[in-house]
Write a structure and sequence with these properties.
- With 200 residues, the protein is α/β, with parallel strands linked by helices.
- Strand 7 and strand 8 form a beta hairpin.
- The protein starts with 7 loop residues before the first strand and ends in a 7-residue tail after the last helix.
- Helix content is 32%, strand content 15%.
Length: 200
């Protein structure tokens, strides 16, 4: 099993601003009963997007201008709250490939990057500026260049933050720990031969 390196993410963006957007807002608890994550993407931000009768609320994800977005622009402490893996799974399966935020909750960050969901940071003033640019021109292509640690939006270039270990894992195609294990199955079997027990 090979894992494709991620050097850059390019796409349209949607601003979902505000601080402390927690995992319950990202995926309400009643959707955590699934055995697999198939179909969970349609419930991302569900209670933020729909009222109790299922009618759409005013929310950026219900705005047709952002319907093809694949990058989220968010505020501080994005993904805080419970450590549910369903939150990044729902975002990824809703079609998003990256999140640009002021900061991330630690567990959410780890759960996201393991899925290949790129998480990078910008200061608050630059988040606000980028969000205004996207709001004024929803069709603008945003490029996150992981190797150079920059975000390009038209002529504007921002220096973004990414943990060195995360950056390396994306560039080397080693962000999926299960994939890395399967890729090195020959080595696993060699180790097993010298153990007093079997993995089987």
């Amino acid at each position: 099993m090979s894992i494709k390196p991620i050097n850059r993410v390019i796409g349209k963006a949607v601003p979902i601003l505000g601080d402390d957007i927690d995992t319950d807002r990202i995926i309400p608890a009643r959707y955590l009963k699934c055995v697999t994550f198939d179909g969970i993407g349609e419930f991302a931000f569900y209670d933020e997007r729909f009222d109790s009768e299922g009618k759409p609320k005013k929310h950026p994800l219900n705005d047709n201008r952002f319907k093809d977005a694949s990058i989220i622009i968010a505020g501080n402490n994005f993904g805080c709250g419970s450590s549910r893996e369903h939150a990044p799974q729902s975002i990824k399966r809703a079609g998003f490939n990256a999140i640009i935020a002021e900061s991330f909750a630690e567990i959410f960050y780890g759960n996201s990057t393991t899925l290949g969901l790129v998480c990078v940071t910008l200061p608050k003033t630059e988040i606000e500026e980028l969000a205004k640019t996207v709001d004024a021109n929803p069709n603008i292509q945003i490029e996150i260049d992981i190797e150079r640690e920059v975000i390009r939006a038209g002529e504007k270039v921002y220096n973004c933050g990414i943990k060195p270990s995360t950056k390396k894992s994306f560039l080397d195609g080693e962000y999926d720990s299960l994939g890395v294990l399967l890729k090195n199955m020959d080595k696993v079997k060699e180790v097993e031969k010298n153990l007093p027990y079997s993995f089987a």
